[in-house]
Amino acid sequence: MTKIGLEIHCQLTNLQSKLFCSCKANYREFSPNTNICPICVGLPGSLPMLNQKAVEKATMISMALNCKTPEKIAFFRKNYFYPDLPKNFQITQFDAYGPTSIGHDGKITIEGKEIRIRRIQIEEDPGRLIYEGTSEKTQIPLVDYNRAGTPLVEIVTEPDFDNPKQVRVFLNILVDLLENLGVSDPTLEGALRADGNVSVEGGNKIEIKNVASFHDLEKAIHFEITRQQSLVERNIPIISETRQWDDRRKITISARKKEEEQDYRYFLEGDIPWVKLNSDHFKKLREKMPESIASKRERYVEKYGITNQVADVLSSDKYYADLFEQSHDEKNAKEIANIITTDLMGFVDTREKRETSKLTHQHLTELVNSIMDNKITRNSAKTALQEMVSTGKSLIEIISEQDLDNVSDESTISSIINEVLNEEANAVQEVKEKPETVNFLVGKVMKKSKGKADPSMTLNILKKKLGIT
Amino acid sequence: MSGHQSWFDLNLGISALKYIGEIKNGNLTAEEFISKTIERIQKVDSKLHAYLSINEQAVEQAKSIDKKIKAKENVGACMGMPISIKDNICVKGTKTTCASKMLEDFIAPYDATVVSKLKAEDTIIIGKTNLDEFAMGFTTEFSAYGPSKNPWNTEYVPGGSSGGSAAAVSALECIASLGSDTGGSVRNPASFCSVVGLKPTYGLISRYGLISYSNSIEQIGPITRTVEDTAFLLNIIAGMDPHDNTTIDNQNENYLNDIDSGVEGKKIGIIKEMTHEGVDKQVSAATNKAISNFEGLGATFEEISLDMVAYSVAAYYIITATEAGSNLARYDNLRYGYDFDSEGYEFNSYLSKARKNFGPEVTRRMILGGFVPSAGHAGKYFLKAMKVKSKLTAQVNEALKKVDMLIAPTVPILPFRFGEKIDDPVALFLVDINTVTANLTEKPAISIQFEISGGLPIGIQLLGKSMQDKMLLQAAYALQNTVKLPEVPI
Amino acid sequence: MVSKEEIEHVAKLMRIEIDDHVVHIDRIQKMIAYFDILDKANVESEELIVREQTIDALREDKYIPYDGKLIENLKNYKGSYVRAPKLV
């Protein structure tokens, strides 16, 4: 049986400062080595000062993944030498003296399958290496410590996945969950990273590292399963090792054998006393915690009669869900949900578009209420929505500028219909034989009215004039 | 020249409190005192090698403090007094070498919290003092820049690792000094050089800017000529620090108030394991005399046994090696260190070459530090050492329920000659047997100069309850006033 | 007794060359042998005593830019990067 496990690293991008110092948590805007201080470059004599919010956010992740949370958490040093690691040890969590990481023994269910969470730990991100020089042999690593000390939460699953598809579904759900919790912005480059481990029937566990994206991880896991299965078929033993994903060749390559695995000499970080987490802490956080995606979805369906499909899309995307929550009321909820998941989605489907969008929840409320009051047609609404996103103008402004107000005056519609009936003699004949094709004529009327004619009124008058039901 | 005291009878041996009094009275100027101190350093430090570097701006700084005093502007409590700082504590813009070739070119870009606090009180940092490389040792013989000498007899070690600090204070090359104490590194040289040395309760003084050797047990501590001066300095440097998560709130305790309240009615425990076996005869006699002096002041005594003391030195070396192996891993010479280009080297071989600049003792402890906490050996060594630490703490806590404080000689033996112990690591371990307990149990402990025996100093150690550093100072003050010691011969 | 090879291996892991420091081996062996005394301490069942703090004691999450260009105080490459020896 194939077994797959994951290690996911999630940067707590929504924090202001790094895990142990006051440098900025979001290092992306800085030129090299300008977001650094004696603490994050590990200068002699500096000491780590643990970020309170980081512990809170990590606790939330732990609770959201149904983990057990200990009464006290401890920090450990993981010792190894690498140029991106300024102290040549990483401050992380470890369970040497019982469970002292922020979470353990959790689970989430995906498509009916339970995935167990082994451990959740808080740790610091290393710096970044870039390379100068062209050929691999002459490459000189240059270190930028701006990222060093960025708060990370590592989520380690049990090897409970049977196939790469489950991995993909899990990661999608996890990304939505982390975003919904308000702990991390998954659209930021490098904010979420994952390593995996794979074993097949009759073989040992292989770790896969150095994977740039979730998409690559899926490919790497695919590759590993195939590679390992073919080894087993040929009776070649699979020896435990760590392999790297080579994105260029789309294969994994051996990085180091198990016996070369480092001894990290984990021991307690004396500079950070154990942190007591009392019941008040958990209670306070539970109150602060945003509603879960599952609970939102259920509420949308049950309270507003929104379809399952729409509720799924709406609840799992924090941007849409927040817009919905702010703009809807009892009456317009369903219509707002529909507008978001049909028309709006096309306009704000990327991070950049969302950032530049000028749309507010007031816009959305106004727009949907106008549709419901027949002041504007669904068609015109889409045009107005696009205008709101790009300019932020109010609905009234847009209607008057673009002449989008609904035509619901019977005589006006009637005269447009007469024109259409004259022009479309063939179609009229067809409709009389097959009344279900009447929508073709409705479309022509809408087009002639530049989308402003009230569609239901148009249909009624047409039916009357053509004598169909 | 101000006041009626002439330049020539200016006494460099005055205490910090006396110095402040003389400055306030106008009998003395900071400039006079600093100039005279520099003169003294120039005269004696070629023999003692207490200093690794001297503050070239000291006289200028003194002048500007004098100017403020004259203009009746606000002046900090230290009024320009010269204080030296062990060279493993960061002073902004100065070389901070840890007496290592590894940090030959390291210039600290920031002040340690204790240094900021001293500067805020108008202290003049007169220079940086010698130590065993990265504070690992008890003689200063492991300084990469050569050992310091004992001012009482320059053929003898001054103790360590804060040997430069203790020698400088003892030889009147400064009024006071800050050292660091990981297993006795303040108390041991204080004892060997006949001065006062305090290892405060863990967390009482911020370690921010102290270059870590074994961070879970070490503290910065003052070295002074009088107990009152230690209390005075503690008032300035103790307390919570937003840069050190391990500091404790001391409620702004004033350690000088009631320092003369005595020991009447106090119960003191004599630590059995530190006062009998292996203790030098003269040291033993001095300890007994201290006990009887205390009894004369109304204290009572009982013997206390702490059987974990037998394992304390082994536990101490295992814990310190483990932490040192990790704390000193950052010295890879990539970001700071010394001049050695990495061009043409592969990463691991460069590090191994660069780190050859560590001296022999540091190298050995690095290797021990790679060994004792490793996956295959942690159970036998590191975990057991941590458990000895816990059990020893429990035993000391239990003892301190019965008595107010504990007493033992600071070091079981007299100061020794250079080269005498350096070749037998296990014999050298036993020099630490009386001091490591306070570090492993986080308790405050103080060494007070008590006797000069055959020209060599002997210090007495008191160990107290956590956060009761003040009670220790009161007892030490009482003991100090029972003896009159000769002046330093140098 | 811990073997010479094992000590040399650990030295390599700790990234310190000791090829011209044969004297170290003997001393390290003596020190490690001394640590065997702990086998007699009978502390296996002892609970660890640890230092604790409350979550309120932790640092507030606030961005405070470092005052000064730290990179200028470090060994730097073209003024902005730290250069490392090659990894292969």
Give a verbal description of the structure.
- The complex is a heterotrimer of chains A (469), B (490) and C (88).
- Chain A has 469 residues and is of the alpha+beta class.
- Chain A is 41% helix and 18% strand.
- Chain A has helices at residues 52-64, 164-181, 214-233, 279-288, 293-304, 308-316, 318-327, 333-347, 351-356, 361-372, 378-391, 395-402, 410-423, 425-433, 439-448, 455-466; strands spanning 3-11, 72-73, 76-79, 89-92, 103-110, 113-124, 128-132, 140-144, 151-157, 192-199, 206-209, 241-246, 251-257, 267-268, 274-276.
- Chain A has an eight-stranded mixed β-sheet with strand order 5-6-9-1-10-11-12-13. In chain A, strands 4-3-14 form a three-stranded antiparallel β-sheet, with no helix packed on it.
- Chain B contains 16 helices and eleven strands.
- Helices cover 36% and strands 13% of the residues of chain B.
- In chain B, helix 4 (113-120) links the parallel strand 2 (82-86) and strand 3.
- In chain B, helix 5 runs parallel beside helix 6 (187-193), helix 10 packs across helix 12 (360-371) and helix 10 (309-327) packs across helix 13.
- Chain B has helices at 16-25, 30-48, 58-70, 113-120, 163-170, 187-193, 227-237, 272-275, 281-296, 309-327, 347-354, 360-371, 382-402, 425-429, 436-440, 469-480; strands spanning 51-54, 82-86, 124-129, 176-181, 196-199, 219-224, 267-271, 300-304, 405-409, 445-453, 456-464.
- With 490 residues, chain B is an alpha/beta fold.
- With 88 residues, chain C is mainly alpha-helical.
- Chain C has one domain (4-73).
- Chain C contains two helices and two strands.
- Chain C has helices at residues 4-13, 22-35; strands at residues 52-54, 82-83.
- Chain C is flat.
- At the B-C interface, helix 10, helix 11, helix 12, helix 13 and helix 14 of B face helix 1, helix 2 and strand 2 of C.
- Strand 8 of chain A pairs antiparallel with strand 2 (82-83) of chain C.
Task: Offer a quick outline of the entry.
The complex is a heterotrimer of chains A (469), B (490) and C (88). With 469 residues, chain A is an alpha+beta fold. Chain A contains 16 helices and 15 strands.
